């Protein structure tokens, strides 16, 4: 079993938890003031430190007047984020820091070299071997180590600005050192550019000489091959054979077109003459001047014939003469058309001959052009090689002249500039007395408040039953006290607060009236008086049939009557139920006969947070019942956590079918904190008397009308002695 079994039935009482702050505010305030005073004293005595910073901007420093010819701002890449970060590492490099340390002679200052002015205490620690000897480290390394501790170089986010930040006990050094680091960085970058430029000129000079020779050889090869291959260049920078082939091809196309046109015209004239058709449709015929005059004469004769036909007959000699002239004109026109046709045929034949000649010339030039093409390919390759060598030579010459001029003039701009130099600070950045003291005060208040809340929480005083729990919140608890134990003085559990005024009750005759028994003769013992009590078996039967979860036993007669709780717990356990007996008597009268010892951890250890449930629950030696004894812890300390008792009861009733609690001579107020759902209250007695009757009346009037009186007299169980008057069970 674990303490966590009750976690679901417990809530944190925030009011009680935070009320602890009000109860402990003097202690919290005193601790906060002490811490604040210590912080104020330490900051007041601390050595002040000053901080200054220098800012660099990484940018292209080349101007438009000094930029190499043919280049612009976009030709030179600007450093990206990784490049700027690399410059941060360069600035904080060992070489630059060494230069600054030597320039400012920092090794003579105790701030950077503790061997310069080592105090006596440090020397004694070194002699005793409690501190390493700084003289074993080289002086430069000691200075560099201190400089790195005080130096902070970083890049401003999303920019090309580098900040050089340095702190020192001397405000003048705090400004001089970052300025010196920035100057050293720019000087190193300038020297690097000079070295790079010198290396470039030293490399370009022999390369240019070699390239000049190679360019000369390449151009000589081009000229020699051109002369050997007889590659004559024509117009448009082309080979002469190729150009002639192109011209002849154009001429051949023109001759072929003229031949085709002459043949077509001759065919049309021939068809017109053969078919007797009109020659007016042939443009070449119409264009002849002779035919045009004959046509005009023909038109004139037709007009005269038409005029004479109005007055003369067709056989008239004049008309016949005119008709004869008209026929003669038609014959002349056909003769002229035939001449034109023959001329066109002659022209076509001439064009055919010219075409044949041109075709032969073209074929000849084709072969020559093919040979020239192969030779031109080789010539072009030689020319490309010569051109490439020439261009490379020109590029090297340009760069060499630029590098040589920069070397001679010693002008090589660095791609960085200082736009904000450090100045000596007037106020230290550490210590800030008021902020540190205020932070110490607030922090100590918070820490003490948290510590107080945790103490209240872990002590259990800030716990309360959950909303679903049936037991009520209690303010105090008192463990029962044994009355007049023989030769034993028990330790009482005292009340945390004053008890409420006890109710004044009058004993009722009906409850206190003893029962009478008839006499059976002189040999019969007198009948024992009763108050209506039941025996152990009846009490067990009542608990089992009612399904009670808790059985609270009150014993007004003291430890003698505690045997009733033990007997009932054992009988119910023998019936098959899981039963636990919780002993709340001062002397352990209920648990001692079950464990044969009173030195076991018990309820007081659990309340004092010295043990867990698994440590305080023990098995009965004579039954299957479990027992939680009184325990061995300090009762006063256990009383401080009395609020946990209802929670413990709730957890036990969850784990067991029945929890039997022996309270000793407790009153109604004493058992009220143990009562919960399904609780049966029993009053254990040995001999009825006025004390027992008064206790029964008080319990009934205090809200327990179902009180059951039970007696262990006459019940025998192995391992449990029969109680007698004033004898512990």
Automatic annotation (TrEMBL):
Regions crossing the membrane: 25-46
Keywords from the named record: Cell membrane, Coiled coil, Membrane, Transmembrane, Transmembrane helix
Compartments reported by the entry: Cell membrane
Domain Polysaccharide chain length determinant N-terminal: 11-104
InterPro entries (alphabetical): Bact_polysacc_biosynth/exp (IPR050445), EPS_ExoP-like (IPR005700), LPS_length_determ_N (IPR003856), P-loop_NTPase (IPR027417)
GO cellular component, one term: plasma membrane
Ranges of Low complexity composition bias in the record: 502-520
Keyword Membrane included in the entry's annotation: yes
Entry coiled-coil feature ranges: 208-265, 291-339, 365-399
Top-level division of the source organism's lineage: Bacteria
One matching Pfam family: Wzz
Annotated stretches, region: Disordered: 484-526
Any one GO molecular function term: protein tyrosine kinase activity
Membrane topology qualifier: Multi-pass membrane protein
Name of this protein: Chain-length determining protein
UniProt source species: Mesorhizobium temperatum
């Amino acid at each position: 079993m674990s303490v966590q079994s009750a976690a679901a039935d417990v809530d944190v009482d925030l009011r009680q938890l935070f009320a602890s702050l009000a109860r402990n505010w003097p202690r919290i305030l005193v601790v906060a003031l002490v811490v604040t005073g210590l912080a104020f004293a330490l900051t007041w005595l601390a050595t002040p430190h000053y901080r200054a910073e220098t800012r660099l901007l990484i940018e292209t420093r080349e101007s438009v007047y000094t930029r190499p010819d043919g280049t612009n701002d976009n030709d030179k890449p600007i450093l990206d984020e990784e490049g700027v970060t690399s410059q941060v590492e360069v600035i904080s490099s060992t070489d630059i820091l060494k230069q600054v340390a030597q320039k400012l002679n920092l090794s003579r200052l105790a701030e950077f070299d503790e061997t310069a002015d080592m105090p006596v205490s440090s020397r004694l620690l070194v002699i005793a071997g409690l501190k390493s000897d700084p003289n074993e480290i080289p002086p430069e390394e000691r200075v560099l180590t201190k400089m790195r501790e005080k130096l902070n170089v970083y890049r401003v986010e999303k920019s090309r600005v580098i900040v050089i930040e340095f702190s020192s006990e001397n405000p003048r050094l705090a400004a001089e050192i970052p300025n010196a680091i920035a100057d050293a960085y720019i000087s190193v970058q300038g020297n690097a550019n000079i070295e790079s430029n010198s290396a470039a000129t030293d490399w370009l000079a022999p390369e240019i000489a070699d390239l000049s020779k190679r360019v000369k050889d390449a151009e000589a090869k081009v000229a020699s091959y051109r002369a050997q291959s007889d590659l004559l260049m024509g117009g448009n920078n082309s080979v002469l054979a190729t150009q002639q082939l192109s011209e002849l091809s154009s001429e051949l196309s023109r001759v072929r077109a003229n031949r085709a046109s002459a043949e077509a015209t001759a065919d049309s004239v021939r068809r017109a003459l053969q078919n007797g058709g009109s020659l007016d449709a042939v443009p070449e015929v119409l264009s002849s001047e002779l035919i045009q005059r004959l046509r005009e004469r023909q038109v004139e004769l037709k007009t005269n014939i038409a005029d004479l036909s109005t007055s003369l007959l067709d056989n008239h000699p004049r008309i016949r003469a005119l008709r004869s002239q008209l026929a003669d004109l038609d014959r002349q026109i056909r003769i002229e058309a035939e001449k034109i046709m023959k001329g066109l045929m002659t022209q076509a034949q001439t064009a055919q001959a010219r075409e044949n000649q041109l075709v032969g010339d073209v074929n000849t030039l084709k072969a020559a052009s093919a040979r020239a093409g192969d030779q031109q390919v080789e010539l072009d390759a030689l020319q490309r090689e010569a051109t490439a060598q020439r261009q490379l030579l020109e590029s090297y010459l340009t760069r060499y002249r630029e590098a040589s001029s920069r070397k001679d003039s010693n002008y090589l701009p660095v791609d960085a500039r200082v736009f904000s130099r450090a100045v000596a600070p007037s106020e230290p950045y550490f210590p800030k007395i008021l902020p540190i003291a205020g932070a110490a005060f607030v922090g100590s208040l918070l820490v003490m408040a948290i510590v107080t809340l945790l103490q209240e929480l872990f002590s259990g005083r800030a716990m309360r039953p959950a909303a679903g729990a049936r037991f009520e919140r209690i303010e105090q608890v008192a463990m029962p006290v044994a009355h007049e134990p023989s030769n034993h003085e028990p330790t009482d559990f005292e009340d945390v607060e004053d008890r409420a005024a006890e109710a004044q009750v009058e004993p009722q005759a009906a409850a206190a009236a003893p029962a009478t028994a008839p006499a059976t003769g002189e040999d019969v013992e007198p009948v024992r008086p009763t108050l209506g009590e039941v025996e152990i078996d009846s009490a067990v039967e009542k608990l089992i049939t009612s399904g009670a979860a808790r059985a609270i036993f009150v014993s007004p007669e003291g430890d003698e009557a505690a045997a009733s709780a033990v007997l009932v717990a054992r009988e119910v356990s023998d019936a098959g139920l899981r039963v636990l007996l919780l002993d709340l008597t001062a002397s352990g009268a209920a648990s001692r006969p079950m464990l044969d010892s009173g030195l076991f951890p018990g309820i007081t250890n659990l309340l004092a947070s010295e043990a867990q449930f698994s440590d305080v629950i023990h098995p009965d030696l004579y039954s299957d019942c479990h027992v939680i004894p009184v325990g061995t812890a300090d009762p006063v300390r256990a009383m401080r956590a009395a609020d946990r008792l209802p929670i413990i009861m709730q957890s036990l009733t969850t784990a067991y079918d029945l929890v039997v609690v022996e309270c000793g001579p407790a009153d109604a107020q004493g058992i009220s904190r143990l009562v919960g759902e399904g609780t049966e209250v029993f009053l254990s007695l040995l001999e009825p008397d006025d004390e027992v009757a008064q206790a029964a009346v008080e319990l009934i009037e205090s809200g327990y009308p179902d009180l059951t009186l039970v007696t262990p007299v006459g019940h025998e169980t192995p391992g449990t002695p029969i109680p007698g008057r004033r004898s512990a069970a």
